Amino acid sequence: MPQYFPFSDGMFRLQFRLFPPLRTAMHILLTALLKCLSLLSLSCLHTLGNRLGHLAFYLLKEDRARIVANMRQAGLNPDTQTVKAVFAETAKCGLELAPAFFKKPEDIETMFKAVHGWEHVQQALDKGEGLLFITPHIGSYDLGGRYISQQLPFHLTAMYKPPKIKAIDKIMQAGRVRGKGKTAPTGIQGSNKSSRPCARARQPSSCPTTSLLRRKAAACGRIFSANLHTP
């Protein structure tokens, strides 16, 4: 009996059947698609993301209703333009995974035009303190994490929730575990894995829950944030 899995744990929850024989084919197709997209400039990806997001606004009624409900719960006005912008920014963020996973780390580093708050990171490095980066789901934290890892003298461990579809997880691991990047699953085991190097003046890149944050903060000297911007 085949199981139904969501294509994404995020905003877009596209349901489809995933048969075991199709996993290899799905991995090959997704890899080829992302590699092709990684050849495009960031501005082209953002233009494509805007168009796909606006199309999704009209096609994905359940997601549109969910966004409206969330905005109202947050005390925001869910006007049409703002909801369209949410779809567009989500699509742009998704397309940014292509260069994040398949561009060379050195090429990703050149994509960043401005960095804010790095002096706090450098201060901790000079003192030999551990670092903990809290990465909100705003913009591409995969691109940001890759940039940060390029600036550090040691590996950066990113905590993440493994997707239910193995083909997607395989692509994510291949894209993240390269250069100075490492990964650890969310949960106690992943928290322990990333806290140990933090205590040795190395750093995990993200912490998804408050309870884990308290544990990590106890192992790290301080908590810093850096805002990274791409054009």
UniProtKB/TrEMBL annotation:
GO cellular component: plasma membrane
UniProt-recorded Gene Ontology molecular function terms: acyltransferase activity
Annotated region (Disordered), positions in chain: 180-207
Compositionally biased residues, Polar residues: 186-195
InterPro entries: LipA_acyltrans
Pfam family, one: Lip_A_acyltrans
Domain of life: Bacteria
Organism for this UniProt entry: Neisseria gonorrhoeae
The protein's name in its UniProt record: Lipid A biosynthesis lauroyl acyltransferase
Keyword Secreted among UniProt keywords: no
Localization per record: Cell inner membrane
Organism lineage: Bacteria, Pseudomonadati, Pseudomonadota, Betaproteobacteria, Neisseriales
Sequence intervals crossing the membrane: none
PANTHER family: LIPID A BIOSYNTHESIS LAUROYL ACYLTRANSFERASE (PTHR30606), PHOSPHATIDYLINOSITOL MANNOSIDE ACYLTRANSFERASE (PTHR30606:SF10)
Keywords: Acyltransferase, Cell inner membrane, Cell membrane, Membrane, Transferase
UniProt record, GO biological process: glycolipid biosynthetic process
